Amino acid sequence: RQSFVMVKGAARLLPAEEPPPAEPPPAETPSQAPGQQEQHLSLMMQLLRPQDAIRLAVRLESARPRRVRYLLVVRPEEAGAEAETALLGVDFSHEGATRCTLGMVLPLWSDTQVFLDGDG
């Protein structure tokens, strides 16, 4: 899926009928090469099943200085699939990594509460 907005390390998918906002792109951080987040998003999408979609991707702070971590909210694209939403933790060994690994899978049920430590 190609319609998404990236702001300060967070990627938000847009519905197909909604046009992208007319805001200028955020300034790149000095340590981040242009297009790096787009490459990471593309690699993360390759981990998913064809029917799944990333609803939200947020870059997290990592305890290890070189490691890049993302938290994804994933759900199938078909109607009525809200019950199949999951949180995925995805790791890249460094900024320019060409592959990623799945570090966490947490299914979200109607009574699930998630608490993030730190700035969240």
Overview of the structural elements:
The structure is a single chain. The protein has 120 residues and is mostly beta strands. The protein has a domain at 52-107. It contains one helix and six strands; from the N terminus they run ββαββββ. It has one helix at 36-45, and strands at residues 4-7, 10-13, 52-60, 68-76, 86-92, 101-107. A six-stranded antiparallel β-sheet has the order 1-2-3-4-5-6, with helices on one face. Strand 1 (4-7) and strand 2 form a beta hairpin. The radius of gyration is 15 Å and the shape is globular. The two termini are 26 Å apart. Residues 26-31 have low confidence and may be disordered. InterPro entries: Phosphatase_SSH-like, SSH-N. Residues 40-120 form the Slingshot N-terminal domain. Pfam families: PH_SSH1-like_1st.
Brief sketch in words of this structure:
The protein has one helix spanning 36-45, and strands at residues 4-7, 10-13, 52-60, 68-76, 86-92, 101-107.
Overview features:
120 residues, mainly beta, six-stranded antiparallel sheet, 1 helix, 8% helix, 33% strand, globular, SSH3 phosphatase
What string gives the helices and strands in order? EEHEEEE
State the major sheet: 6 strands, antiparallel
What proportion of the residues is helical, as a percent range?
A: under 10%
How many strand elements?
6
SS-based structural class? Answer: mainly beta
Question: Regions with pLDDT < 50 over 5+ consecutive residues?
Answer: 26-31
* Overall pLDDT level: 76
* Strand proportion: 25-35%
Radius of gyration: 15 Å
Biased composition (Pro residues): 17-28
Organism: Elachura formosa
InterPro entries: Phosphatase_SSH-like (IPR043587), SSH-N (IPR043588)
Pfam families: PH_SSH1-like_1st
